[in-house]
Amino acid sequence: MSEPTQPRLTSLAHGGGCGCKIAPGVLADMLKSMPQAAPFADLMVGNETSDDAAVWRLNGQQALVATTDFFMPVVDDPFDFGRIAATNALSDVYAMGGTPILALALVGMPINVLSADVIGRILAGGASVCAAAGIPVAGGHSIDSVEPIYGLVALGLVHPDKVLTNKGARPGDLLILTKPLGVGVLSAAFKQGRLDDAGYAALIDTTTRLNTLGARLTDLPGVHAVTDVTGFGLLGHALEMARGAGVSITLHAAPPILPDVEALLADGVRTGASGRNWAAYGHEVQGLDEGACRDLLTDPQTSGGLLISVAEEQAGALLDLARDDGFDHAAVVGRVEEGTAGVRVA
After folding, report:
1. How confident is the model at residue 6 (pLDDT cuts 50, 70, 90)?
2. 18, 20, 130, 293: which one is catalytic?
């Protein structure tokens, strides 16, 4: 007797990847009701500037980086889904300059719909990425869920004097992005059955590339701020950087993009999250009209690249370091300037 046909993973989810994040405007309203946290002397980074992870000082030589990230499937292959989700979760540790030390799996699966084999392959995909990062999946938690959900709690270490945050950008800095944009567009095309094999390969390659560069940035002079670009798009995460430092950021209108993205945008392929992102923060952006450029800059990036604010004289060395680490598309995408916190596109 043949095994029952398994449904497409993406057919079981109303959203996928970082595109299923709560819209930034809605999230801001929800967080307004949170009570003011008591001060903790060893809490080096909390939620004040929407940074990528919390950081807790352990002693004079070590600080703990703690984060969690999980989402619904962005692709149908269970092993690839696990890899993408794990890579995305570990990125927040790297964005703080940390080195991961262990992970815990977060698993929510419709156990009456998906077989144990499919769920096991999702977990195996995540474990393979953790192994590549040199860390164990040391435990976790699972529930029976209507939609498939997978991710990690990720813990890492960094020297307390070398923590990287999203709030240190300085006027005169250049902004470098390590991965090309367009993940949301490619994933939308995949769900619509419009993504060819080359496009799928590009999607998997970029979303499973660990942002290990972040741990190497702590010893590079001139690196002032770092964040990873995920569900709020390049515009949204650049805005967080601008707000944190009280600076103005100018982004280039033509950042590096993944193959086929330009053509897909021209054909009207985009995610709903792109529109929700613009509705939340578009009033803080100048120089950007409706069109493909806006769709690209607001496009949610599942497991996106690092956005790095670096002194102009060190930008060349940083680009060399990034390309040496396998980020061949790393490029300057903007500049930090004095002025009211916000973003301009030129």
Report:
1. confident
2. 18
